[in-house]
Amino acid sequence: MHHPLSTLTSLVEQIARTQDPTAMMSTIVQRLSELLNVEVCSIYLCTPERDSLILAATQGLSPTAVGHVQLAVNEGLVGNIAGSLSAVNLADAPSDDRFVYIPETHEMPYHRFLGVPLLHLRKLVGVLVIQGHQREPFSEEDEAFLITVASQLGSTLYQLHRDGEWMSDVQDASPFRRYRGVKGAPGVGCGRLWLVHPQLSLSDIKPSMTSNPAQQKSDFIDALDSVKEELESGSGRLGKHLPSDVSALFHVYKLMLQSPELSDGVKSLISEGASAEWALKQTIDTMASMFEKSDDPYMKARSEDIYNIGQRILNQLLERDQQVLEAPDEPLILGGELISIADLAAFPQERIQGLVCTSGSTLSHTAIVANALGIPAVMGVEGVELEQNRGAKVIVDGNRAECIINPPQALLGEYKRMIDQENRVMRDLERLRNMPAETLDNVQIQLLTNTGLLADATPGLERGAQGVGLYRSEIPFMVHDSFPTEQEQYRIYRNVLKAYSPLPVSMRTLDIGGDKQLPYFEINESNPYLGWRGIRFTLDNTQLLVTQVRAMLRAHAECGNLKVLVPMISRVDEIIAVREILEKASEALKRDGIEVPRPQVGMMIEVPSAMLLLPKLAPHIDFVSVGSNDLTQYLLAVDRNNPRVSNLFDNMHPAMLVALEQILDTCRRLGLPASLCGEMASDPVAVLMLIAIGYDTLSLSAYNIPKIKLLIRSVRRADLLPLLDKARDCTDESQIRALFEPVLVNLGWSADGRQPPQDSSAA
């Protein structure tokens, strides 16, 4: 292919005559795709902060992606070109471990890839890319020509970058919006946005309009009537027992609800297009301001009553919104600051297609539970106004840590195709349910499940779990509005033990504190992760521990497969105290006529001191479970929920490798069975390292068991041992991951291990 200098000169002159930024970039990609005879030509320009690049123009990729596809520097092939300031020429881009597939671009059919940086006076302006169907690299002549073109275009595009005009031009091209966060749980989900904490105050209400004034007026009238009924029933129920001043307040409230200024004012604003909530806020503000201007203290105080009654009406309106959204049996995306276990338990699991949280991190409790249930989740999403988008169509992309609000139909269709593909892969993996998790060189790995939600008892069995490695007993406590009774706990524990019998079930005693709080027992501490949590809390509240232990033992008496797991042990006297409580509870039950076989008692290694005290703890325990999430957090002194340092949290840190090997060596010497639970057991890259270290029991979410079993059945432990030797010499987690990731890629997995091969029939 020949590209004479005259061609280049003609191209630059044509571009120079184009004044409109969008038209200029469109001309560039169109003319270059024609000159080079390629299917795709794209320009990515740096954002003003220079920390990421946005697709600014394309010929060949989806036009709806322009202005919305965004890559960080060093993310994907484009980001790597920006980071290294060097050209990349590949025969098959999707097979490169730096490749990141962006669904809305529709770029999957393209293989060969050539990208060069756009520079001006040593400053990065963007990246110029061409792509094609063939599986061969572009010629040296093509590469030289594109580099030359880029050098000529750098100064021209730098002016656009400096002025920033192209940003507004391309980003306003489509109504949908993308928001980035941090990865909570992998996968993709689509549905309508449902706010799990809609009880906002009037001051939180933002301007919003309605396209259905008649419905909004009807909702307001119903809300008004509901508040009237509340007041009537309240005053009637209490009757003559009400103090005179409170009785007078009820009368004032009733008069306010009957006020024409209130009902007529709200209805009038709704007729003008305002939503019921926004109309209510404006009306209440107007009415309250009239009282606030009064010099009479009594009349001034009535403004508080106005706001009180307005808040009551708002609560009813928001509850009606919930009922309207609950009516259709459609998929939901739950949104909120942080979504609790109680929130998740309130919905049928099959309807929850994703979570969007405006705070939290990859290892916040919300993310851990979402992982356990196989629900895609994005945490710490910034800039999104969830309240203004209630009921909107939303895509949650947990793989890319993004949520997309009001996606166009084409993009929605592409994501639904991806969801169908993932579902097909998971259905294909169902055939592994009754097969052993055994490496190609006959190393057996026991796969247990983590569970806790009341409706989450059986998925582990359905996916081939060999028991329960971690039953989170705090979840029944979190979904109640008070401490559950012994009888309530007994029924729950019996159902779980019975479902898995005769397979073992390790039930962890109550573990609250940190980011796991009970709604009816608030613990306020400046540093909750180093405070009153886990066994410290339950030993200080002995009655709670005795009640829980009795319930567990009663269930064990019937099923015989209980193992008691004690969290957050940091001292020898803590495990001794727990053993004494267990023995006393067994004796008390025996006096009541209930013979309880002695259950095995184990401890979680989450605190570094427990790892160092293992020889002294060993006489008092029967087994050990490594809690990888907390052990990593405490070992690295990194708060996994603090966005400023959460990027430093990685289970593959060299210090964790040293700790894991030391724990296993000590347990073998002491004759203690050892398992590992936490997110590390669901991370395919980490699992490869754990197999090499010698861990033969892993506890993970039921959803991830089939994928991890497939991985185990695809590798040889002997092939991983040389990588482990090299990992011992690594100085950071990225080096360790770089050693094990090629194993996944060679097996057809994605580099991060989240996506197994689409055709896994060979495993």
Automatic annotation (TrEMBL):
InterPro entries: GAF, GAF-like_dom_sf, PEP-util_enz_mobile_dom, PEP-utilizing_PTS_enzyme, PEP_util_C, PEP_util_CS, Phosphohistidine_dom_sf, PTS_EI-like. Gene3D superfamilies: 3.30.450.40, Phosphoenolpyruvate-binding domains (3.20.20.60), Phosphohistidine domain (3.50.30.10), PtsI, HPr-binding domain (1.10.274.10). It catalyses: L-histidyl-[protein] + phosphoenolpyruvate = N(pros)-phospho-L-histidyl-[protein] + pyruvate. Its EC number is 2.7.3.9. Its cofactor is Mg(2+). Pfam families: GAF, PEP-utilisers_N, PEP-utilizers, PEP-utilizers_C. It comes from the Bacteria. Its main location: cytoplasm. GO terms for molecular function: kinase activity; metal ion binding; phosphoenolpyruvate-protein phosphotransferase activity. Keywords: Cytoplasm, Kinase, Magnesium, Metal-binding, Phosphotransferase system, Sugar transport, Transferase, Transport. GO terms for biological process: phosphoenolpyruvate-dependent sugar phosphotransferase system. Residues 20-167 form the GAF domain. One of its GO terms (cellular component) is cytoplasm. It is found in: Cytoplasm. Belongs to the PEP-utilizing enzyme family. This is phosphoenolpyruvate--protein phosphotransferase.
